[in-house]
Fold this protein.
Amino acid sequence: MSEFIAALPTASLYDPEEASEGSIDPLGMYPLSEALALRIGSPGVRERQRNLRFLTICCVGWEVIGGVRAEAEPGDPNATLEQCLEWLVVEALAGDPDGEDDGKIQGLPGATKAKSCLDRGLHLNADRYLRMASVFGFFGVYRTLAEYIKLVVRGSEEGAILGDGGVRLLTAWRNEQGLPGFGRDLIGSGQKEYRCMVAALTKVWREGQVVEDRQAFQFIQRYLRHSVVTGKAEAAELRRLLIEPGASEADGNRREILKAVESKPAAAILSEDSPAAEARFHDLIRPDSSPNLKVILEAVRAYENFIGAMQNVFDDLLFALSDHANLIDVKVAAAKIPQLEKRAARFPILFKEATAALGRVPGLAERFGVLFGAFGVKSDAVGFLRLLLTHHERVQKDKPPEGKSPWIERKGDLIAVRLRYRRDAGGSDDGRYVYFYRSRPLFDLLESLKADDGKA
């Protein structure tokens, strides 16, 4: 930072528009949290996953995609058949007059944008749908789970092949919906609906946006509602797909967590709208967990105790700096953070406890030491803030592809928070975890099977 910029009187200049941003994980805590989460929930489960019915919709979608002729020319060369099918499903469900007032479109990716388009007489396309639809649309959100449980055995939408589980799920859905013959190279009354959906998707593919097709919309609204699993066999197959696959230690931990979340005390905790719910759930089940799972849960607790304390000090620092437009001395900032001297003195203890707990999980103690080893040495309040600032700057600098800007500008011992990272409150001390460990999505995925609309 130049001498001229450092001397300017307003904070806005510490947030230059051209700066490369790194606005998540400013302290480099996420990689170890994710490594622990994978050992509990297994690699296919993600925090955004909430509703197993989307796996059925994906299976039906992949079967429909397989019927689109390869020579069909796309209207949008950047769109994929998965995205085109997603536009069609989302617009049909968002435009269902029976789904507006009873929450039936809640949890549908892109539903808000679809309703806005419909209100303006427009149809969904790439520009009117989700940003990064391949990640945040339902194919993107559930692809990792579908591939991990081998619902689908090849990832590209042009060549997606249903695995044994996908075939069983599609068969269960087809039989319960009374659609024999729905699919490629099949014979039965469901061929009419299948050809209708293939034709509708082909039109969307060729036009590069949804083309209204009343028959296709009615099919989707009747058979592909995301809000409800309508058959016992479908629900049973979805449950089996979530619980049974995999023989790894992580899969065993996932099955144990799934069994635990169905107990009344656990369900009561996870049903709460509380940021501390997952931590309380882990505290509930840890004493009676199997040895393998207990090791992971103890590692999570010790790691979260460490990173939670660090995150709270960092948030308190951002808050302390937010009232100042100019650079202030780090000693002044330290004096504004409650009990910083006492909190800083605890970090070597927290570091030792986390190192011991992570040491029982292969490979994690070493990674923890590389990332946070400097915090294992006792320091006073001001020294701790200097250490925290140096750590934050290193984390931001190491972010790909070419580093990111720090949230706090520093010139020697003079510091200032950049404008976009100001805070109107300090750190939380409510027992919450800093990161997530898959308990809530696993709970919600099982809960989604109970919404059978009385038809199962």
User: Anything to note?
Assistant: The chain is about 55% helix and 0% strand. The radius of gyration is 26 Å. The longest helix spans residues 291-321. Confidence is low (pLDDT under 50) at residues 1-19.
